[in-house]
Amino acid sequence: MEPKEQSVAVFGEALVDDFSTRRVVGGAPFNLARHLAGFGLPVTMITRIGDDDNGALVRNEFTRFEMSQSGLQTGAGEATGSVHVEVGADGSHRYTIVPDQAYDHIDGSAALTALQAAQPSIFCFGTLAQRDPASRAALHALLEQTDAVRFLDLNLRAGHVDEAIVFDSLQQADIVKVNEEELQQLFKWYCHTCPDTVNMECISVDTECRAMMHNFSLSALVVTIGARGALYLSADGAHLADHGTGTSECFVDAVGAGDAFDAVFLLGRLRGWTMERTLARANAFAAASCGYAGAVPQEVGSYNHWLGQWSEASGGA
């Protein structure tokens, strides 16, 4: 019997960003799942939507990316997750995350059935979908039953995620990805000092990160720092930085850039790339994602361009 292809399970919110004039499907976990599916990986997205117009938009994205719907739940009378987005005159965005949405009520039993069928090698989760006890309990049930590597994208959202949820999530994780602001918040909560992160490679940043990794038994910590690239620290002593390619020459927005980075980081892990190669490719893909509107490209076929480019550059790896 041939070994089963490595797969990924993603738990969390699938929602719709409502700009009043247009609606765009999003949610950090769903962005990640769609990217992974675009790269051809088997993905099980565990989420919950309502039987409404926004839910239909989400379901259409499952179809467009040819994703399995085994983990997609539908709650009668529940509203599909939504975020109201107001765009200011200066181009700034103000987000209002709507409470009590379908993804707050993920059913643990149905989720566990989907997880057991998928048998993923990597299990991804975040924090927003833990704001309600129902979905938080479902997540804990899955974490208790899987032996997959646990990848946490912290993705803090003020007013929706408290320190207790963060603490518990860090205890459950193997690999944690944060951005620079989130790392500074973790320093304030869990470290003796809060070093300046302008120079991410300085000794004080490394020291505090490693202390935190030790306290939470993390195998790795990944920090994205926008156009300055990313930093990777591992429990075995690795300290690698890639300073990226800057932002896209035709910058549109940075929505979902972190999710794009995550997808290639996980792809590299599954494909056995070196960490140097993984960081460089993840940064390049994240930068390119800033060149189109929204979190994922409109042309699903564009993923083949990246796969082909990487294959040629590394002799098929």
Automatic annotation (TrEMBL):
UniProt entry keywords in alphabetical sequence: ATP-binding, Kinase, Nucleotide-binding, Transferase
UniProt keyword Ribonucleoprotein, yes or no: no
MF-aspect GO terms: ATP binding; kinase activity
Domain Carbohydrate kinase PfkB: 17-296
Gene3D superfamilies named in the record: 3.40.1190.20
InterPro entries: PfkB_Carbo_kinase (IPR050306), PfkB_dom (IPR011611), Ribokinase-like (IPR029056)
UniProt family annotation: Belongs to the carbohydrate kinase PfkB family.
Name of the featured protein: Fructokinase
